[in-house]
Amino acid sequence: MSDPRKITRLIQLMGLAGVVLLFLVPVIGSRALVQDLFGVLTLLILAQNWNLLAGFAGLVSVGQQAFVGVGAYAMFACVILLGMDPLVGIAVGGVAAMLLAIPMAFFSFRLAGAYFAIGTWVVAEITRLCFAQWKALGGGTGTSLPKGTTKTMFGVPEIKSWLGGSSSAASDALTYWLALILALATLIAAYLFLKSRMGLGLQALRDNEEAARSVGVNPTRLKAWVFMLTAFGTGLCGALLFIQITRVTPEAAFSVLDWTAFVIFITVIGGIGTLPGPIIGVIVFYFLQRTLADYGTVYLIVLGCLGIAVMLFARRGLWGLFTEKTGIELLSLRQLPPTENQAR
Amino acid sequence: MIWIDTLVQGVLLGGLYALFAAGLSLVFGVMRLVNLAHGDLIVLAAFVILSVATALNLNPFVAAVIAIPVMFAVGWVLQTYLLNRVLGDDILPPLLVTFGLSVVIQNGLLELFSADSRKLTAGSIEAESVSLGGVTVGVMPLLTFVSAVLVIFALNQIFYRTKLGRAFRATSDDREAVGLMGIRPNNVFAIATGIAMVVATIAALYLGIRANFDPSIGPARLLYAFEAVIIGGLGSLWGTLAGGVIIGVSQALGAAINPEWQILSGHVAFVVVLLVRPRGLFPRSKD
């Protein structure tokens, strides 16, 4: 068991088995479990996106709730105002979030370093206050999806006849699978992106901006791309979340605690700047929440203290500690030197 | 006439925002630290004043005098044992540590004091007003604004006229060189944060008398404070006062048009100023 490569192989196989098991949960598990895991997976998607922003592009955004909220509201607008299927609304939600990211980047990229965090937060507040003025979607008090929308959603009747059980259970299964697919797709996309030429440029910028610029990496353009792409992913996730919640209010859709603070702690505790980090973080978060559920806000205090402790003593989080102690790496972004015939 | 009245109320409100912001401006000027827990520390100070006032049955102004050394100590301890450890070239650790601190303080206060709205009661002075050339203003808002001007004047005096201020400026310019001159940067930072918490306590006093507060209102105050600092230009204390006034006036004007637009127009003013003047109105130096 001393060879890290063998253990790495083993963990990879276990991960693959885990994914298969996760796909089977709606078939073999209880509905409560499906709903719980849906919450975990959506937080994981948000955390992966924030990790790309803060951990790899150095863009510490505290305004991710803007994209969740816009995604959710765009989906509601599609369903309520245009009578579209909620699943189409999800795609529109992602695009709407990406469109918001353009002016947001234009403004907040002017703010250097730490002030970027404040800039994104202010833009998220402005967006929340504007959506609270949208009277067709309930203004400040919000609105609900029309009764039965999720039960007749594309794919739900088929899943119902296949799994048996109620329409609500079938719609939970559908949103769960979508969340699982989105989480996997985000992970794979992030891996491929970071391995690509652009991703390499991004990591070069993080390690030494001057040196990266001198070999032709354009920081603003690269960072703007990451900002837009993660906004897209976050918007998709926001729309998906609110299909399951079925009710939207400006406070819930643009909640800085639910969609940004939790996500930051998850990423930091798991390991910021590593791909497996958010996965570890979301598992820790889930068990912490379950264990301390009876003690009110205590789990938030514990979460905050854990985040601070990680920043003080282990900046690469739990995953970073694990890698350091065992030499096991998963989804490693290390680039091997080119071989003879690859080198020009 | 109603517009002049709105304008004056806005300027006076800006005084409160400048008080929120002055501590942040000082801390940023000395150590380039962006403290995301500042709003919650102001709320913490308000609860300290409230506790002292209730326990000893004192007027909040007297209670604040007792709270000031307590909060100075809080700032000193926080800087010495937590924030000094994460200061450095990497912006991520200080941001995330202060963000964590913000969540911890907010929920700690929630556990201790519940989510109920509280208020500091200062007696008859709250209802008194004076007439200033046709515009009637409340004594408390006026006192808030005058305090803001005095606090910023005092901070400027400390910064440019005292030995401590010289240490602040020197440490801000070159941390290593200052060490060679026999000054401990970490001590200087601890004193700066302590002073910032003294200003936060003064801000908390006026916040608590002016309106209800509860543990959750910190982040919103933080945003107003940061907007004031950035509008004013990083490192300029008088600029921070100007920034506070701009936010206050925009909020008052927005509220006069439609009460729902109060907060929104303050944020929009911030965005507009930054689009026109990316480095704020009175930037001190290249940061």
Write the layout of secondary structure elements.
The complex is a heterodimer of chains A (344) and B (287).
Chain A: H1 4-28, H2 31-56, H3 64-80, H4 86-108, H5 115-131, E1 143-144, H6 156-163, H7 167-195, H8 197-207, H9 209-214, H10 219-245, E2 247-248, H11 250-253, H12 256-270, H13 277-291, H14 298-313, H15 317-326
Helix pairs in contact in A: 2-7, 2-10, 2-12, 2-13, 3-4, 3-5, 3-10, 4-5, 4-10, 6-7, 7-8, 7-10, 12-13, 12-14, 12-15
Chain B: H1 2-31, H2 38-56, H3 60-86, H4 92-113, E1 129-132, E2 135-138, H5 139-161, H6 163-173, H7 175-180, H8 185-210, H9 218-232, H10 237-257, H11 262-276
Antiparallel strand pairs in B: 1-2
Helix pairs in contact in B: 1-5, 1-8, 1-9, 1-10, 2-3, 2-4, 2-8, 2-9, 3-8, 5-6, 5-8, 6-8, 9-10, 9-11, 10-11
Structural class of chain A: mainly alpha
Give the helix proportion of chain B (percent range).
Answer: over 70%
Ends of chain A: how far apart?
40 Å
Query: What multimeric state do the chains show?
Result: heterodimer
Shape of chain A: globular
| Amount of helix of chain A | over 70%
Proportion of residues in β-strands of chain A:
under 5%
Helix/strand order of chain A, N-terminal first: HHHHHEHHHHHEHHHHH
Please give the largest β-sheet of chain B.
2 strands, antiparallel
Shape of chain B: globular
| First-last Cα distance of chain B | 42 Å
